[in-house]
Design goal:
The complex is a heterotetramer of chains A (about 120), B (about 400), C (about 170) and D (about 325). With about 400 residues, chain B is of the alpha+beta class. Chain B folds into 3 domains: about 1-45 and about 335-360, no CATH class; about 50-335, Cytochrome-c3 Hydrogenase, chain B (Orthogonal Bundle), CATH 1.10.645; about 385-408, no CATH class. Helix content of chain B is about 45%, strand content about 10%. Chain B is built from 16 helices and 8 strands. In chain B, helix 4 (about 95-125) runs antiparallel to helix 5 and helix 5 packs antiparallel against helix 6 (about 170-195). Chain B is globular and about 65 Å long. Chain C contains 4 helices and 9 strands. Chain C is of the alpha/beta class and about 170 residues long. Chain C has helices spanning about 5-15, 35-50, 105-115, 165-170, and strands spanning about 20-25, 30, 55-65, 65-75, 80-90, 95, 120, 150, 155-160. Chain D has one domain (about 15-310). Chain D has helices at about 1-10, 15-40, 50-60, 70-90, 105-125, 130-160, 165-175, 185-195, 210, 220-245, 255-280, 285-310. In chain D, helix 2 (about 15-40) crosses helix 11 (about 255-280) and helix 10 (about 220-245) crosses helix 11 (about 255-280). The chains are: A alpha+beta (about 120), B alpha+beta (about 400), C alpha/beta (about 170), D mainly alpha (about 325).
Chain lengths: ~120, ~400, ~170, ~325
């Protein structure tokens, strides 16, 4: 049994006084910087999209909608994402055959208006 | 007041559903005689979200992400269990490399879960400095997990039939670097836990659950191992890459919170060894194997060792792409049963740490559509307070009446 | 003869009616086909007292159409899982609590009560789990016919839509 | 007239109430900042305690229906008043306090006991479960630390042979080496002061994770603000008392002495923070055990030693 006593982390605590803090103040200091591999909001590139609907079928929460406003031959596609429902699993990115969907590092969506959460990509 | 304090000097102290020592809602009615706990009623179920019902209406790929969100901390073990169940029904074998990656992520998750627990436990006993230190070190693990998986907690590394992301040299070296620095931290925690008098006095012989009781109440994970039961699914029923990786089962004979702390700290050390082994012995190969969307009919029970203990998934399919029944038995669910037993006879001061010591995960237990039940709130004048709040906001030109909150 | 077969043989020796209803699914998993209530009660005492399956992991409720299936998952000192399946009719789902032998089953049995509407005889008094106290009677969410879309969260009532059928008729 | 204004000025501005509250805010800030930095966090900005105070002042005060409204609303002021009055007798500038008379030590000790009692009454008459338990714990803790605290504060007076703080400080300032005799009680006093201030590791009366915030759980708005202010002032009060009794080093030049006073208070604060940082919360029964098993005998030994020395010196 080792010797016990109170205040075993005193030295470390004092040492920390002279170290840089591990936290940073986030409020009002711009957007957070995240890793390149971080899954943020998805991006949509409609050039190759064939509107197969695989992404919508695999989306667990039904957050993503690919809407064709034109006709079957003349496609006018747009993607609408409800960020409030999106869980950032990026299964749609994996499911997409034509690599139309990618993820970005955009992760800051806080808003006071619920309608702002539905965005067109 | 009058209902809380009865004649013979007994006080019924409600801890929860909202209480600083609980991370999630749960209710514990503690009957006190002075400072001594004479009875405890455990009430859980506040987090029931009906995930199992949701799973019965979505296909397997969607379910994977829903199951992953059963719990925020042991998400990987739930998704691993679900994947293993589906793969077993489909009759496919996952590539070796994928199995190794799963193990690395699982062990990183264990590190992060145990560090989180250590912090919470220290906070419960009023040792906030240790709390901050452990959570600071936990960030390192989370950063690695974010690089590996893409998210900080629900990594989404698993997919049915393999894993979604590969490891490369940079990730390997980053993991090894993190693990090296963590090893030193863990040694320090162990030393503090062994030598700090105030810490020991708060943990020793608190929340006793003897070997027999642990067996009787079906405790799992570190709670059982701290009572001397060598049960670890990684060893007793190896799955995935654990069939090849040497794992030591950490047990302790203290049967109390102190033992659970020691077990968890030593398990972190063991996890680090496993991660090193995996990184050094990782086979080359593909990441995924094709799994049909329609899973053949059948049923399967899968066990996985989550950081909190044994995680059991039951899956039954009926030949379509939608499961017939999914049942998740989260580890915490097994540990609740002994809680009353652990609380009784202790002091009020021991209640938070005893509850925390099983590393409770209320969401896990309840797997749970939160249905608001304001009917049960016992606030003295709830309606008045709410009215006041609405009026106050009205003065600030914010109208809250459009929000639909049920009147009591 | 491996351990699984030994267990199966010992159960079959004691309960001949089980012989064609118990099977080894794979390593460490022994399943039984549906047992009736009386059969189940006999077997469970034997399993607990003599085969030393002293831990119950959980009980899975399943909706099998006419019947409700209950899968009790037992484990013991050995790492083999023994799954006993009990079948009760939906119209009269009464089972007997096994909480006197396995104290850790209480929470799971409560869950059966709330989610499947099983009547558990001998279950100790206690709070609802996992549904809230104000949950309406006769609503059992995990039964297949219960559709969450028809449940009104604000009034806490389940309204079976009749309009839909009318539409179908049209 | 000018004499009267001078006294008023001393009472309310410097080193009276205004100085007390401003400096106690500063100490509270330093307390939180250093606490945060020792935990490797950034910590609050310098105006945080003041901002908190102003925010609380602006909030609505809710008095529970079951509570005794009079006691509930008077207790914060009683607590604040006791601390403010007590501070008058403590030397800030050099060895001179604003007021002093030959028995002021006893007054100060009495006033020192009032804030915990006020918190106890406030908690007890809040009529809530958490506050009742918190109040009981406050009282239990008082039984634990009162005796060691009083004896360790009074032991130095035995050598000095006076019951006036000013004279005591003067005596030790003249004979600085005598202080080292009192070192054991200085340590016990520091621990009992920490206990009195209900700071970790002795914070079980307000243990957040067990009883939310103990006796003051029902307090809100202005009343809570005054309790917080009183608590901050109590911190400064206790630190000043400690420095007056155990660290009475001074030069005689008034502004140098004032700087010395600041340095001394900051040093004591650092010790108090260190205690708070490095230990887990001790259970209430262990606090009782600790105080009576270790602190009380040490202080009693010191008393006997000091009485013997008195005969020698």
């Amino acid at each position: 049994m080792k010797k016990t006593g109170p205040g075993r982390i005193t030295f470390r605590a004092i040492k920390n006084l002279f170290k840089k803090p591990a936290t940073t103040s986030y409020a009002g200091k711009g957007k957070p910087c995240v890793e390149k591999k971080y899954r943020g909001r998805i991006c949509y590139d409609k050039t190759d999209c064939i509107n197969c609907g695989l992404c919508m079928r695999d989306c667990p929460t039904g957050a993503l909608k690919i809407i064709n406003e034109g006709t079957k031959e003349d496609k006018k596609l747009k993607a609408v994402l409800n960020v409030g429902h999106c869980i950032f699993c990026c299964q749609c990115v994996d499911s997409c055959m034509k690599k139309c969907l990618t993820y970005s590092q955009d992760i800051d969506f806080a808003t006071t208006n619920k309608a702002d959460l539905t965005v067109e990509l | 007041m009058s209902e809380n304090i009865s004649n013979n000097n007994k006080i019924v102290l409600p801890i929860g559903p909202q209480h600083p020592s609980l991370d999630e809602p749960g209710r514990f009615d503690i009957t006190l005689e002075g400072e001594k706990v004479v009875n405890a009623v455990v009430g859980v179920g506040y987090n029931h979200r009906g995930l199992e019902k949701v799973c019965e209406s979505k296909n397997y790929i969607q379910d994977l992400y829903i199951i992953e969100r059963v719990c925020g901390i042991c998400s990987h073990s739930h998704s691993t269990a679900f994947c293993m169940a589906v793969e077993e029904l489909a009759g496919v074998t996952v590539p070796q490399r994928a199995e190794y990656i799963r193990v690395v992520v699982a062990e990183l998750e264990r590190l992060h879960s145990h560090l989180l627990w250590l912090g919470v436990a220290c906070h419960e006993i009023g040792f906030d400095t240790m709390f901050m230190y452990t959570w600071r070190d936990r960030e390192k693990v989370l950063d690695v997990l974010a690089t590996v998986g893409g998210n900080r907690v629900n990594y989404g590394i698993n997919t049915i039939g393999g894993v979604r992301r590969d490891f490369n040299e940079t990730i390997n070296s980053e993991i090894l670097k993190t693990v090296d620095s963590l090893e030193e931290d863990i040694k320090r925690y162990l030393e503090i836990a062994m030598t700090e008098t105030t810490l020991i006095s708060r943990l020793k012989s608190k929340g006793k659950l003897s070997h027999e009781d642990a067996l009787k109440y079906g405790a799992v994970g570190p709670v059982a191992r701290a009572a001397g039961i060598a049960i670890d699914i990684r060893v007793t029923e190896p799955y995935g890459a654990y069939k090849e990786i040497p794992v030591n089962v950490i047990t302790d004979t203290n049967e109390d919170v102190y033992g659970r702390t020691a077990v968890r700290i030593l398990e972190m050390q063991e996890s680090i060894n496993i991660i090193r082994y995996c990184i050094n012995n990782m086979p080359e190969g593909t990441l995924t194997v094709k799994v049909p969307r329609r899973i053949p009919a059948g049923e399967v029970i899968v066990r996985v060792e989550a950081p909190r203990g044994e995680d059991i998934h039951y899956l039954r399919s009926n030949g379509t792409d939608i499961p017939d029944r999914v049942r998740v038995r989260a580890p915490t669910e097994a540990n609740w049963h002994g809680m009353k037993h652990m609380l009784k006879g202790g002091n009020l001061a021991d209640v938070p740490i005893t509850i925390a010591a099983i590393d409770p995960c209320y969401s896990c237990t309840d797997r749970a559509i939160v249905i608001s039940s304001e009917k049960n709130t016992e606030v003295m004048d709830w309606r008045g307070l709410r009215r006041y709040g609405i009026d106050w906001y009205k003065k600030q030109n914010i109208d809250l009446t459009s929000l639909k909150i049920k009147e009591v | 003869m491996n351990r699984e077969e030994a267990i199966v043989n010992s159960i079959c020796g004691r309960f001949p009616f089980l012989a064609d209803r118990i099977y080894i699914q794979k390593d460490k998993r022994i399943f039984t086909k549906s047992l009736l209530r009386e059969e189940f009660e006999q077997v469970i005492a034997y399993v607990h007292d003599e085969l030393n399956f002293t831990r119950v992991s959980h009980v899975v409720g399943t909706d099998d159409g006419e019947n409700l299936g209950l899968l009790y998952i037992f484990s013991g000192s050995e790492d083999i899982l023994l799954i006993l399946r009990e079948s009760v009719p939906k119209s009269n789902p009464v089972i007997k609590s096994i909480s006197d032998m396995y104290p850790s089953i209480v929470l799971h049995e409560r869950e059966l009560v709330d989610l499947f509407g099983v009547v558990v005889e001998g279950l100790p008094e206690g709070p609802h789990y996992p549904l809230p106290d104000g949950w309406p009677e006769g609503n059992y969410p995990m039964r297949k016919e219960w559709n969450p879309k028809h449940f009104n969260k604000d009034t806490m009532t389940y309204e079976e839509p009749q309009e839909k059928e009318v539409q179908k008729n049209e | 007239m000018i004499e009267f204004l001078k006294i008023l000025c001393k009472l309310f501005i410097f080193p009276g109430f205004l100085f007390l509250s401003v400096y106690s805010f500063l100490l509270d800030f330093l307390d939180r900042k250093l606490y945060a930095r020792m935990q490797n966090r950034v910590g609050p900005p310098w105006y945080q305690p003041l901002a908190d105070f102003l925010k609380l002042i602006g909030k609505k005060t809710i008095i529970p229906a079951d509570a005794n409204a009079v006691i509930f609303s008077v207790m914060p002021l009683v607590s604040l008043a006791a601390v403010t009055v007590g501070f008058i007798y403590l030397p800030v500038l050099g060895k001179e306090a604003i007021f002093s008379f030959s028995g002021d030590f006893v007054i100060v000790l009495y006033l020192l006991a009032i804030p915990p009692l006020a918190a106890f009454l406030a908690g007890w008459y809040s009529r809530a479960v958490y506050s009742t338990i918190g109040a009981t714990r406050i009282l239990t803790q008082m039984f634990a630390y009162e005796v060691p605290l009083f004896i360790s504060v009074l032991a130095p007076t035995l050598i000095a042979g006076t019951w006036s703080i000013t004279e005591l400080t003067g005596f030790y300032a003249a004979h600085p080496l005598y202080i080292f005799i009192n070192l054991p009680v200085a340590i016990t006093a520091l621990i009992s002061f920490q206990c009195k201030l209900e700071r970790a590791p002795f914070d079980s009366p307000e243990a957040e994770t067990e009883i939310v915030s103990g006796a003051l759980v029902e307090y809100s708005g202005r009343l809570l603000a005054f309790f917080k202010l009183a608590h901050n002032c109590e911190l400064l009060f206790v630190i000043s008392l400690f420095s007056a009794i155990y660290l009475p080093f001074m030069t005689g030049i008034i502004w140098v002495d004032f700087i010395l006073y600041i340095v001394k208070t900051l040093f004591i604060l650092l010790l108090l923070i260190l205690m708070r940082v490095t230990m887990a919360r001790i259970e209430i029964n262990n606090t009782l055990n600790f105080c009576w098993k270790y602190l009380a005998p040490v202080t009693l030994g010191q008393v006997i030693l000091n009485l013997l020395l008195r005969g020698v010196l």
